[in-house]
Amino acid sequence: MTAIREPVLMPVALEDLRPTQITVGRREVEIKRKAWRDKSRKKEKEFLGRHLIPVVEGPKGRFYLIDHHHLALALHEEGVRDVQIVVFGDLSMVDEDLFWPTMSAHNWTHPFDDKGRRRDYKMIPKHLRDLIDDPYRSLAGELRRMGAFSKESEAFSEFQWADFLRRRVKRTVIEKEFTRALEMAMEFAKSKDAIYLPGWSGPDAE
Fold first, then answer.
1. Number of other CB atoms surrounding residue 151 within 10 Å
2. Among 13, 53, 142, 164, which has the minimal tally of Cβ within 10 Å of its Cβ?
3. 155 Cβ partners below 8 Å, 6+ apart?
4. CATH 3.90.1530.10 spans which residues of the chain?
5. Helical pair 157-166 and 135-145, crossing angle rounded to 10 deg
6. Contact between 39 and 118 (Cβ < 8 Å)
7. Where are the extended beta strands (E) located within the chain?
8. What is the residue-averaged pLDDT of the chain?
9. What is the pTM for the complete model shown?
10. Quick check: 37 and 69 in contact, CB under 8 A?
11. Per-residue pLDDT tens for 48-98?
12. Alpha-carbon distance 148 to 188, whole Å?
């Protein structure tokens, strides 16, 4: 299906945007909330004008997020009511029982829980506020900011890194000793075990 990629110039309520994944990294959301609070009013308007939220139009005219869940949730929690969207695809004509399988075929959904288990599509929240925390997604996000791997256009690439780390770093370490967990994660990220992951930058030079 050809992407539409046309900005919708009317504002859309964040409350009405539907997630296409089950989890977010809570630390990631808090970082974005703080960045928003540090902006002036002028900078807020400029930021919202530059950051269009990518969506797919589904049945009954609903808009489904296909990226920027962390940003959308952060803005919602900071009291922002409306955002501008850019429509990447129109699935409004698809029967409701085929909608999620069609989304999956386009790699526009990630129905995995905070333990990395694939779940039924009905487990995907209907509202941003109901997204649950996956600490491994936060760990992966921090690794990317530190340059352990590059930002890729491939959908859900950071969730792939999260699943890689899920098998190597204990969740309790992330929750209680994040700095230590990050040091451990960096070692794993630079190893050849991670060579298959998107954005892998290779081992450090000896």
1. 11
2. 13
3. 66, 67, 107, 108, 110
4. 6-133
5. 110
6. no
7. 6-13, 23-24, 53-57, 63-65, 82-90, 132-133
8. 92
9. 0.91
10. no
11. 988 999 999 999 999 999 999 999 999 999 999 999 999 999 999 999 999
12. 10
Residue 145, number of CB atoms within 10 A of its CB: 11
Average pLDDT over residues 139-151: 93
DSSP 8-state assignment for residue 191: S
Helix (H, G, I), strand (E, B) or coil at 64: strand
Instruction: Please name the amino acid found at residue 160.
Output: Q
Identity (one letter) of the amino acid at 29? Answer: V
Q: Are strands 82-90 and 6-13 parallel, antiparallel or unpaired?
A: antiparallel
Share of the chain above pLDDT 90, in %: 85
Residue 140 to residue 202: CA distance in whole angstroms: 16
Topology classification of domain 135-194: Helicase, Ruva Protein; domain 3 (1.10.8)
Confidence of residue 202 (pLDDT cuts 50, 70, 90): confident
